[in-house]
Amino acid sequence: MAQTPAWPPASLTRLFVDQPLSQGMALTIDGGQAHYLGAVMRLKAGDQIALFDDRTGEWRAGIEQVGKRAVAVRIVERMREREAVPDLWLLAAPIKKGRIDWMAEKACELGVARLQPVITQRTIVDRLNLDRLRAHMIEAAEQCERTALPMLDEPVKLAQLLKAWPEDRALIFADEEGGVPMAAAAKPGPAAILIGPEGGFTDGERAAIKALPQATGVSLGPRILRADTAMAAAVSLWMGLAGDWR
Amino acid sequence: MAQTPAWPPASLTRLFVDQPLSQGMALTIDGGQAHYLGAVMRLKAGDQIALFDDRTGEWRAGIEQVGKRAVAVRIVERMREREAVPDLWLLAAPIKKGRIDWMAEKACELGVARLQPVITQRTIVDRLNLDRLRAHMIEAAEQCERTALPMLDEPVKLAQLLKAWPEDRALIFADEEGGVPMAAAAKPGPAAILIGPEGGFTDGERAAIKALPQATGVSLGPRILRADTAMAAAVSLWMGLAGDWR
Q1: Enclosing domain of residue A100
Q2: pTM score, two decimals?
């Protein structure tokens, strides 16, 4: 909800609001966001902020009144249309709390379109708080100036996911047993990166993944990467080779 | 000090010890490492572990006795020589605690040879606990199977660093104002990646960096990355293009 205040402030304070925005619209910002605007950023009536809704884009808004629990704002004008990110999904086995939160944050910043938690045989985290993950992604979107939030789906089992794998979507999986460099796997077009749990995939899972014609195993170098490191590395490489960092 | 127990155990438990190891040598492991071997990993006399010393490589050692506060081991044989990583330095402005710890961990896992903290004009963290950073790097080295620890230096001011910049070392800096893709900047050979603080470089700093003939500004895509995200992205791209992930 609250990005770290930049010093010096390089741009307007940005907030996500979960309702469709339009020109001239008046709205009330409450809860933690109101506290953030008033007490943390010390904004006053007359100041401007940026709002995005994941639907219509990003809007400039003027603050009309700052209260302790509510801030009244009015939309001035649209600054940007909603911008899509490259069509890259991240499929990741849930890992322990701090690291999965970090993964959600980084997935958003790096430009992933969708985060799909995947249950594998060695996944040892059985409960996943999607609301908390979503909050981390919203904060990251506010920070990194995305106007579109990543989609976040309910966890599914790996076998189920593979069974219904879309014909036109490349499945790039980080294979601890070795694979091709990302440069040989990343091509523009619909793709997904699959990161296993800390214990890795089972032999059966690896065989099932490899049986998909859309699948390619990639190597992320000679060191053993933690799941969160592998995720950041693989997404960064893909973005540089096939995404919008080129 | 303690990597997460892998399930199933894929390899020997690995520990860093800060003394030169040799064939047949007897040594005592104490403190948190002894607790880890006995209470966490539940190893017993007769079990084997891997030790590395950042000097002579990685050794197989046999446990001879497990006590509450000390574990007696004897070196059996060398398994690997000390392996160097690519000659990549990471120069990073200190950021707040959790994020700089994470940066040290990821720098080690991703294969950085040296971490040099850099003080810039907008660096707002004035104290840096190098012992804590080093502990995070050791834990990461244990986890990722490095046999050589990254060097970790005392913080230096950016201006001082630029003044004495080695003639043969490329300086790749993440430029929020845009630059070339990493593919145009990363070439095999000595290199450094420079990541600014959350507030970015000042105009004067940017000009001083750009004045170096060894310097190239790179873009990490259209979204605004936090410093820790930029670091993981830039190092991953460099490793894929010019490091040992090819």
Answers
A1: 88-241
A2: 0.92
